[in-house]
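Field reference: sequence -> structure
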Amino acid sequence: MAANPGNRLCLGEAQATGKSDKIAKKQRRLEEAQQELREARDR
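Structure field:
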């Protein structure tokens, strides 16, 4: 990903949102896995 010279001020902000986005994705994956586990137990 090339850095946009006009967006230097937003770079740190973008990195922060990128990190929280990754965490959110992991959280979602975890919840999906737990849901699948529950469904498997119910069968």
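Note: The chain is about 75% helix and 0% strand.
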